[in-house]
Amino acid sequence: DAGVIQSPRHEVTEMGQEVTLRCKPISGHDYLFWYRQTMMRGLELLIYFNNNVPIDDSGMPEDRFSAKMPNASFSTLKIQPSEPRDSAVYFCASSLSDLLNAEAFFGQGTRLTVV
Amino acid sequence: DAKTTQPTSMDCAEGRAANLPCNHSTISGNEYVYWYRQIHSQGPQYIIHGLKNNETNEMASLIITEDRKSSTLILPHATLRDTAVYYCIVRVGQDMRFGAGTRLTVKP
């Protein structure tokens, strides 16, 4: 397996524009996580899904952020409208539900810059 | 509300063992201790995890105290490529939240 795949790797957008980040989890994994990383706040858990269903979205900063998982092999994180303070690296991760082997595998991240 | 406490930074000489401590005094009986590391600009990488027994794999060893209130990650022969931020996480289920971690610098 190629691991967790995120796209794009880099995104530069203007304030007010819609941004969509994409993630393909490892095949067979039933949990998917979205994280945001900044210097000030570190790694923050935004939302996670189990079997395509959102389980906990308490980390989503505000209504401008939304995440979907239409099927087991694809998820999106959308920001609309984007603001400069959304600039960060966004990571997607996936894992199995087996708690004895529940290590999460992370993608390479999407570096978002909102100008 | 951080569940773990780690030193902000540590140095280690190349070839020596790196011992990274973590305090998790409020850990509950069904929470696992996980360790991840993040090398500059990359996504976090899983290292090892355990419940109450010591664990070892090809990357590291995890020593958990008998009362489970603290643990130590041991990299037996640190190399320059082990320079990274190391995160200790306690989790039950799939909820996994990162603290600030320890920045380990391996020096030649």
Secondary-structure topology with pairs:
The complex is a heterodimer of chains A (115) and B (108).
Chain A: E1 5-7, E2 10-13, E3 19-24, E4 31-38, E5 42-50, E6 53-56, E7 65-71, E8 74-79, E9 88-95, E10 105-106, E11 110-114
Parallel strand pairs in A: 2-11
Antiparallel strand pairs in A: 1-3, 3-8, 4-5, 4-9, 5-6, 7-8, 9-10, 9-11
Chain B: E1 9-13, E2 18-23, E3 32-38, E4 45-50, E5 55-56, E6 61-64, E7 70-75, E8 84-91, E9 102-107
Parallel strand pairs in B: 1-9
Antiparallel strand pairs in B: 2-7, 3-4, 3-8, 5-6, 6-7, 8-9
Structural commentary:
The complex is a heterodimer of chains A (115) and B (108). Chain A is mainly β and 115 residues long. Chain A has strands spanning 5-7, 10-13, 19-24, 31-38, 42-50, 53-56, 65-71, 74-79, 88-95, 105-106, 110-114. Chain A has no helices and eleven strands. In chain A, the strands form two sheets. In chain A, strands 2, 4, 5, 6, 9, 10 and 11 form a seven-stranded mixed sheet that branches. Chain A has a four-stranded antiparallel sheet with strand order 1-3-8-7, with no helix packed on it. In chain A, a hairpin with a 2-residue loop joins β7 (65-71) and β8. Chain A is globular and about 40 Å long. The N and C termini of chain A lie far apart (35 Å). The model of chain A has no long low-confidence stretch (mean pLDDT 94). With 108 residues, chain B is an all-beta fold. Chain B is built from no helices and nine strands. In chain B, β3 and β4 form a beta hairpin.
